[in-house]
Amino acid sequence: MDPVLVTSNKGKLREMRLLLGARLESTDVDLPEIQEIEARKVAQDKARRAYGMIGRPVLVEDSGLYIKALNNFPGALVKWLTMSVGNEGICRIVDCFDDRSAYAEACLTLYDGGKMRTFVGRVDGQIAKEPRGEKGFGWDAIFIMNGKTTTFAELETDEKTRISHRGIATAKLIEYLTDTQD
Fold first, then answer.
1. Straight-line distance from the first to the last Cα atom of the chain, in angstroms, rounded to the nearest whole number
2. pTM confidence score
3. Contact assessment for residue 58 and residue 3, using Cβ atoms and an 8 Å cutoff
4. Residue 50 has pLDDT above 90, yes or no
5. Are 65 and 16 a contacting pair, CB within 8 Å?
6. Can you tell me the distance from the alpha carbon of 162 to that of 18, in angstroms, rounded to the nearest whole number?
7. Domain coordinates of the chain in residue numbers?
8. C-alpha to C-alpha distance for 146 and 158, rounded to whole angstroms
9. Sequence-distant (≥ 6) Cβ neighbours of residue 33 within 8 angstroms
């Protein structure tokens, strides 16, 4: 199975190509996105819609940033919150609480029109006091993974890609694809 990665996010495409190989085919399909906190539900819905539009196996990734003090908000809605208040605004919101803990979750959904498989990667961490770093994309500048002192945006791209929530989910996908081809 050679699925096509469905994304309009150039940062996500770059990371997925690093993880899966440069020959990964992609397409930018205009998909409506359900408004849902759970990244798994968003990824699965987008996979169904994308398959219906292009008629071939698809790979869809959705991720979320889950902030404990906000009862796991914004989750998969983080893109919209970041567009509204920016990374600085998210840091200021979290300043209202003693607990800065959060987790990043990526859900990779593979769908061939029959079987749907979702691979989840999660890393725990915290929200930085202020955005730091120029690498990465989205909210990488405000997330510090447990065991690190730097944000994702301060890490070299290959390290961030390998240890991140997306890296973990992709490793599970690769294991599945390897096992099903044996």
1. 13
2. 0.90
3. yes
4. yes
5. no
6. 9
7. 4-181
8. 18
9. 42, 45, 46
Q: What is the pLDDT of residues 133-159, one digit of tens each?
A: 999 889 999 999 999 999 999 999 889
- Segment among 37-51, 73-87, 164-178 with least mean pLDDT: 164-178
Are the C-beta atoms of residues 105 and 39 closer than 8 Å to each other? Answer: yes
Report H helices in the chain: 10-20, 39-54, 78-94, 157-163, 165-181
Q: Is the peptide bond before 74 cis (omega within 30 degrees of 0)?
A: yes
Residues 82, 91: contact at Cβ < 8 Å?
no
Residue 1: per-residue pLDDT: 64
- Taken in order 5, 29, 137, 122, the sign of the CA dihedral is negative
| pLDDT, average across residues 67-72 | 98
What span, in angstroms and rounded, lies between the C-alpha atoms of 51 and 110? Answer: 10
Q: β-strand 4-6 against 58-67: which pairing, if any? A: parallel
The residue type found at 5 is L
Report how far residue 156's alpha carbon sits from residue 135's, in angstroms, rounded to the nearest whole number. Answer: 7
**Which residue numbers are catalytic?**
62
Nearest to 125 by CA among 139, 138, 108: 139
Amino acid (1-letter code) at residue 102 = A
Model pLDDT, residue 161: 84
Class of domain 4-181: alpha beta
11-28 pLDDT per residue, tens = 777 888 888 876 778 888
